[in-house]
Backbone:
């Protein structure tokens, strides 16, 4: 299996004990499926992954694209996901959702 060009990481608020706590999982129900379908529809070479808490709860829901290391916050709608994936296709991060340090 080839290594994907990008990895899309979506915070799902998992904690060490496996319990979901925090904001991200509450506001992203069904988003993993939506992202996966959009990636396939667009023909993007991406692995979509759910992850543990990314420690950005006040800016969540959080989505990260690697290896670009683009961190996005307030990803709480399909419109936000579409804008982020449009930016990935264009090679530029969606500025309205991009987090700065």
Residues:
């Amino acid at each position: 299996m080839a290594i994907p060009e990008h990895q899309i990481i979506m915070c799902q608020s998992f904690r060490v004990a496996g319990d979901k706590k925090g904001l991200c999982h509450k506001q992203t129900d069904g988003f993993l499926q939506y992202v996966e379908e959009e990636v396939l529809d667009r023909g993007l070479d991406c692995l979509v992954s759910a992850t543990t808490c990314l420690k950005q709860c006040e800016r969540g829901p959080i989505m990260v694209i690697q290896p670009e290391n683009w961190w996005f916050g307030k990803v709480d709608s399909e419109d936000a996901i579409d804008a982020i994936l449009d930016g990935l296709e264009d090679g530029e991060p969606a500025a309205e959702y991009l987090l700065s340090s």
About this structure: The beta strands are 6-14, 46-52, 63-66, 70-72. The radius of gyration is 13 Å.
